Fold:
Amino acid sequence: MFWRFVYNTIALPAMYICYHIAACCNRKIREGIHGRKHVFEKLIQQLRDARKIEKTAWFHFTSVGEFEQAKPLIEALYEDTRIVLTFFSPSVASNVETYPYADVGVYLPFDTPLNAERLIDLIKPTCLVFSRYDIWPNLVWKASKYRIPTIVIAGTLHAGSKRLSLIGMSFSRSVHRHITLHCAISEEDANRFQRFCPSKHQVVLTGDTRYEQVYRRAMSVESEMELFSGQTTFTRPIFIAGSTYADDEKVILKAYQILRDDVAVRLPHLILVPHEPTPERIEAISSELNQQNFSYRYFSKLTSDTNLADVDVLIVDKVGLLAELYYLADIAFVGGSFHGSVHNVMEPAAMAKPVLFGPTIQNSHEATLLLEKGAAKLVHTPEQMASVITMWLTNEKDRSTTGNLGKQLIEEKLGAVERTLVHLRQYLE
Structure:
């Protein structure tokens, strides 16, 4: 009761105020606030139009990555289960709106006791599923009050998490002890979750469901001929930098300058895929390329007769293309790793591409696994990045071996979906 009081009277109001203050200078936060307007009216309308099925599985996730982890489970359950989706980040809103395996999809209202109570009353879930780590205390406490099973799928808790600090541990125990089951992605994560739970039966090792989703997508990606409408005129090796931020691009473009000045290696084409290709970001990238005297084209301006042979950099100013673009790569860099947290390293690995990333990978268990497997390289500086790219470009056997090790790792990790479904279906009976 102590932590519920602290959370609801101190922490929650503080988060609410900070969230709205931050909205003044953050477009995504403003989108999230706008998207939550009239959310209960939207929920009621969607529930009214939803399929009338006795069982309801409510999945909550924060953003795109966690949605990807839930998708294989959602699609396996959809036929005889009503699916309700809630999410936190605006980045996933459009994905949910067009997803064919959801009966309901709305922003999660702010985590107040009243909102949690109203959500449970309207949705009437058979079970509540959190993907990875976006766990909201009042939802957990209210679900426990009404004896609704709560499951964490693809659960992860890295060793440096604040939840493992002295104060964090005490608060986390007050929440996680009410979660029915934690499906952890690794033995290390399972052991850390167990520290929150009074019963050993509250934690099981299932693996990461995202491996199936990523592998399935990698196997279905069409060739570059379709991506470029039957026309591709790249004549050099291709280095793709995916889902990048400005911090990543500073290192990438400096490394690219070093490669241009190195007479021992042929300068590869660079396909640059910003995480958020807003007009401001595209303009900033273009300005930097002009200063460095690199030739470039915008993806949106390509036509069937565009000649890319003499183009150094292709700037991808559209979203939703990264998986297909990785298919083209000889070498792939994964963004976020010089910014704060690395993005999805599994996607290029599943396509047998040698993977590069920067030093901030503490959020990604699979990035660590790729390093241990020898399927990726971690770099800290532009010089290191240029050196690794040169090594792979001049040694095709090493490049191919590195990429195949990544694909092998993904294949070894398959099976988490079926292991997780065994548990989920128990709570949907």
In short: The longest helix spans residues 2-22. The chain has a mean pLDDT of 92.
